[in-house]
Amino acid sequence: DTAVSQTPKYLVTQMGNDKSIKCEQNLGHDTMYWYKQDSKKFLKIMFSYNNKELIINETVPNRFSPKSPDKAHLNLHINSLELGDSAVYFCASSQAADTQYFGPGTRLTVL
Amino acid sequence: GQNIDQPTEMTATEGAIVQINCTYQTSGFNGLFWYQQHAGEAPTFLSYNVLDGLEEKGRFSSFLSRSKGYSYLLLKELQMKDSASYLCAVRVGGDYKLSFGAGTTVTVRA
After folding, report:
1. According to the model, what pLDDT value does residue A43 have?
2. Would you place residue B2 in the very low, low, confident or very high pLDDT band (cuts 50, 70, 90)?
3. Tell me, what's the pLDDT at B28?
4. Closest by Cβ to B91, choosing from A50, A97, A105
5. Is the pLDDT of residue B1 over 70?
6. Which tens digits make up the pLDDT trace of B3-47?
7. Which residues of A touch B41 (CB under 8 A)?
8. Residues of chain B whose C-beta is under 8 A from some C-beta in A?
9. Where are the beta strands (DSSP E) in chain A?
10. How many angstroms away from the CA of A16 is the closest CA of chain B?
């Protein structure tokens, strides 16, 4: 009965590869988010979708492309991975602008 | 953007009380959240303040003063499991976006 789930939990890949991270929520929320947490533990918003519509698009390289096939899913595709992309990526969901609930995170390591 | 400051680290003894301060500078303030994050895990929601005053939830309380741009999270009767990072986050206007502070790592010692 996991509320917000992400796959994979760990992702190790070579520079230049393309990879995707998937997120699903079963809370019935209408809004989903992607955050990046770097090695200094600073949590920074990347994207947000409300009812499948992009509402937040921070200053993120266009190698990162989110996709929301429906309200319960938000995926993140990353092209041409770079060393600096190594971080933990958290998905979150909320009902409108209410409290956000986070998934377990995906630890991405780019070699 | 929002300027959110919190201490980097705090250490306290089991059974004691610790107060984690958070100051912010923003226009259009519309709520402050506290999250707890254990190492290697997801942030979990602790409390929310949008009006001035104290919100109490068991051993944890959170206080807000909007005029001073200041909040604190109070942890009472500290337990070893309270060792974690505590994140302060601010919401502005009707934004869905939360701006997070860098987090305060609390270490509880026996």
Report:
1. 93
2. low
3. 84
4. A97
5. no
6. 899 999 999 999 999 999 999 998 888 999 999 999 999 999 999
7. 104-105
8. 33, 35, 37, 41-45, 48, 85, 87, 91, 94-100, 102-103
9. 4-7, 10-13, 19-25, 31-37, 43-50, 53-57, 64-70, 73-78, 87-94, 101-102, 106-110
10. 26
